[in-house]
Amino acid sequence: MADHVPVTKAVVPAAGLGTRFLPATKATPKEMLPIVDKPAIQYVVEEAVSAGLDDILLITGRGKRPIEDHFDRAYELEEALRAKEDPERLGSVRESAELADVHYVRQGEPKGLGHAVYCARRHVGDEPFAVLLGDDLIDERDALLQRMLEVRETYGGSVVALMEVEPEQVSLYGCAAIEPTDEDDVVRVTDLVEKPVPGEAPSRWIIIGRYVCDPAVFDVLEKTPPGRGGEIQLTDALLTLAKRDRSEGGPVHGVLFRGRRYDTGNKLDYLRTVVQFAADRPELADEFLPWLREFVAKHDEAGR
Ligand code: G1P
């Protein structure tokens, strides 16, 4: 029944503890860490909105209130900026509040990504929906999510975004065994392994944090036992759906993504992402890039 229902909702899990960024994330959600001057989570919500999904459900937990404040109006701040006649900053403050219809549900217990997605069941109902993980940012010039929605429209079932990585990277992700279809950038997913042990990965194609899920995933998640790391894994639920046909909520297809993805989930990639985003901002790049070149040259000279 849900087969021809259009996708209108996006689920964004944001309940993680952010331990990789302690102590910065002791009192600040990791999703609020800025990429230049915008919190990472705003880029994710903007991506969903530009794919036409403006009903956003954030899965949050303890200590995540700053995220709610960010997507809300900030009356006093707006008044102050109005009094200062600073329309540009006023616009930037209002923008995040007007972006989308943002809803929240709390996960309560850290039982894994599959459990976080399961928390969306009541809000989503019997409709297909997108899942966007905040650690991955997709360049706004690469319309990955739109393409995934088209693939869902054509094939039904669920869709994951896949990217080819070096073999030593595979065990950090969910990995897919794939078969070609008639379309160059679309594959049928035949197997999925969450964080395979090195040497046992079915391919070099890993799941990046974008999914379009058939609502059948909820019934499956309800019965999915804890997997890798003792957590309920979305990957495991999708494997169950990959083995089903369209009448039962399957199958699973992959969109092969060859565009620009930025990782913000660990310190080194976060730094790279900030530099890349700064280099794309003309008002910063004009001064920042010459400085960066000089800094690196001096650093090399000093042999450090
Ligand atoms: C999660 C998923 C994994 C996926 C990854 C993408 O892992 O479980 O399958 O490849 O996101 O970023 P996590 O990074 O939460 O450990």
How does this model look, in words?
The structure is a single chain. This protein is 36% helix and 22% strand. By secondary structure, it is α/β, with parallel strands linked by helices. The protein has one domain: Spore Coat Polysaccharide Biosynthesis Protein SpsA, Chain A, CATH 3.90.550.10. The strands form three sheets. The chain has a nine-stranded mixed β-sheet. The protein has a two-stranded antiparallel ribbon with strand order 2-3. Strands 7-13 form a two-stranded antiparallel ribbon. A hairpin with a 2-residue loop joins strand 2 (34-35) and strand 3. Residues 113, 133, 135-136, 173-174, 194, 206-209, 233, 235 line the site of 1-O-phosphono-alpha-D-glucopyranose. This is UTP--glucose-1-phosphate uridylyltransferase.
At a glance:
The protein has helices spanning 40-50, 65-70, 75-83, 87-98, 113-118, 121-124, 144-155, 216-223, 234-242, 267-279, 282-301, and strands spanning 9-13, 34-35, 38-39, 55-60, 101-106, 129-132, 136-138, 158-164, 174-180, 186-194, 205-213, 252-256, 261-263. It has 304 residues and is of the alpha/beta class. It has one domain (2-265): Spore Coat Polysaccharide Biosynthesis Protein SpsA, Chain A (Alpha-Beta Complex), CATH 3.90.550.10.
